[in-house]
Design a protein that fits this description.
The protein has 670 residues and is of the alpha/beta class. It is built from 21 helices and 27 strands. It binds flavin-adenine dinucleotide, NADP nicotinamide-adenine-dinucleotide phosphate (NAP) and iron/sulfur cluster.
Length: 670
Amino acid sequence: MTEFPKLFEPLDLGFTTLRNRVVMGSMHTGLEDRAKHVDRLAAFYAERARGGVGLIVTGGFSPDRTGWLKPFGATMMTHTRARQHRRVTDAVHAEGAKIVMQLLHAGRYAFWPRQVSASAVKSPINPFTPRAMTERQILKLIDRYGRSAALCREAGYDGVEIMGGEGYLLNQFLAPRVNKRTDRWGGSAANRNRLPLEIVRAVRAAAGEDFIIVFRLSMAELVDGGQSFTEITALARELEAAGVTIINTDIGWHESRVPTIVTSVPRAAFTEFTARIADAVSIPVCASNRINMPETAEQILTDTAIELVSMARPMLADSDWVNKARDGRVDEINTCIACNQACLDHGFENKMVSCLVNPRACHETVLVLSPTRATKKVAVVGAGPAGLAAATNLAERGHAVTLFEADERIGGQFEIARRIPGKEEFAETIRYYTRRIETTGVELRLNTRADVDTLRGFDEVVLATGVTPRVPGIAGIEHEKVITYPDLVLGTRTAGKKVAVIGAGGIGVDVSEYLTHDTSPTLDLQAWMREWGVSYDPEAGGQLAAPQPAPSPREVFLLQRKTSRIGKDLGKTTGWVHRAALKAKGVEQIAGVVYDRIDDEGLHISVGGTSRVLDVDNVIVCAGQESVRDLVDGLAAAGITTHVIGGADVAAELDAKRAIKQGTEVAAAI
Ligand code: FAD
Ligand code: NAP
Ligand code: SF4
């Protein structure tokens, strides 16, 4: 008997049955493009299938070369390719899951100059201007979709997912934002809907009746010139009539001004849109976006007519998510914290996708944690992300591990991060490691500052002592107005009504979010929708309304010495969200600052040679970190084999992604 009966109810599709309601959503991992990666792709999906997923959707494969995401991107165009993919489908089927290939035509989101679209309307996030497709090209493309679907069938896929959202080609035809055509493919909703519907019919005709067709439908486009919800509902009904088996949810375009999946988006934020579509059609409808834990998934299936729940990134974070939910081991789930740092940010930087909390994701065959043949007594010093990853993976491999932590709790800097409004998910990582320490048998010694003597007698030491905030050499830095970011966020000190933040890196930006919020909109869906301007009005184009951010409780100045744009080095898929949020809260961002002094008057600065006094109540210092390496020399002198990881290794450009990766790699190596 499972805690989540709805989630584990099989779904009969008439000609085939899914073993449960969990869909692994499509993710482009970087393994799709080259034939040489097919076995790694098979291992990646097989691990998720073994983990219990009902249906897997692959990353996007184009039906022809005009739809490449980038030059020589993934396609499904030949019998040779179909034969290679047998290795993927066989591996997944052997584990009891079903798998469909996503067919995606990038349209004007293609990252190459020879892109095509409904009309020659350039995307604001792409340097190239597309050519409008001719009637002949459109008809050929419909044919290509059918051919790809037949090849998918030949490759052993249970079906296809037709990507109709996210602002890709079919969405470009559907929305007046890009579709300016005056022929039978543009103008009225009936004309704009024609291409996706013709593609569905072509796929059904080519692949047969016993073949899953998922259509990924944009339910809230969140762009000006997007379809209205009334139009989308009518389209959903037509897709059903055209032969679609399942409607999957898509939210927003890549160029939308509303965040849709970052960590500050409330869990299941867009379910209401999907639920309304589920009420309008009789085929199964699948929810998605910011669903990462079984309670949320079960609630959606219980409270609405939605029949499936899609999770993509959560399956990177924990390939065993479904089995753990089924067996009542929810506290063992390594939760996706929606940081995007190792998945989407990597994808957009053309790097292999992985996961911040699970660096083995997409590296299953290269980062292997096999049982040790020679058990060692290992001390891990520091229970921040680096030490936690090292200690638990070492113990799981069979080593005898003692984890020393000077603080009264585990988490290191993550304990600060989780208190930032919009970063509540980070607490899940601390919960995960708390439980994993128990399940792997790590001996945890809290309130214990390890020194060299403590560490004698261990075979090897992993030093994960992390970082400490840098104290910049500014005159008056010892003034009582000055507060360190840990003191502020951990509540040791409170800030007044007017505050300057020194340093505009990741932490300075987070601290500014902390200072400009009384409560977290992430925990209140209605407040979040008002803040970003999302509307349930069925006639609102793109489901947008005017944003109404709550006023900031403080006046905040965010400062940096560099003259570059503030927040420039934040993550590609998250930085813009922070920048927009701080702008909405009226944070004054000043670059090119020289810090002159801090005194009773406030913070004295010069910008471009002009002096200015910021008459602030407090100055919060977020001027980077320095490594804590006080044990390194002593351990070397004592002849103890030591591995230094995370912030203790290098403080510059440290993030939890590197900390956890280094911790996992050292655990694999000892
Ligand atoms: P730490 O987290 O510093 O942990 C070191 C631990 O060692 C501490 O618990 C310390 O008490 C302990 N220790 C030190 N000396 C000893 C000793 N002698 N004996 C025993 N214990 C000892 N990173 C991201 O990737 N994404 C984010 O979005 C993000 N947001 C952040 C937001 C904020 C507000 C902050 C402060 C940080 C954020 N970070 C983020 C950074 C991330 O938390 C750090 O990169 C990460 O925690 C570094 O891990 P670590 O294990 O190397 O060090
Ligand atoms: P950081 O990104 O290196 O920023 C440090 C800031 O301090 C910079 O703005 C720097 O800018 C300033 N600074 C450095 N030395 C200074 C000095 N002597 N005097 C005054 N200012 C100084 O580091 P961080 O903000 O501490 O963040 C640490 C790490 O945590 C980051 O590398 C980041 O990866 C991670 N993190 C990530 C996120 C995320 O959302 N992904 C969020 C938070 C933290 P100037 O030198 O121009 O003044
Ligand atoms: Fe989730 Fe972050 Fe991992 Fe991506 S990198 S899967 S967002 S935890």
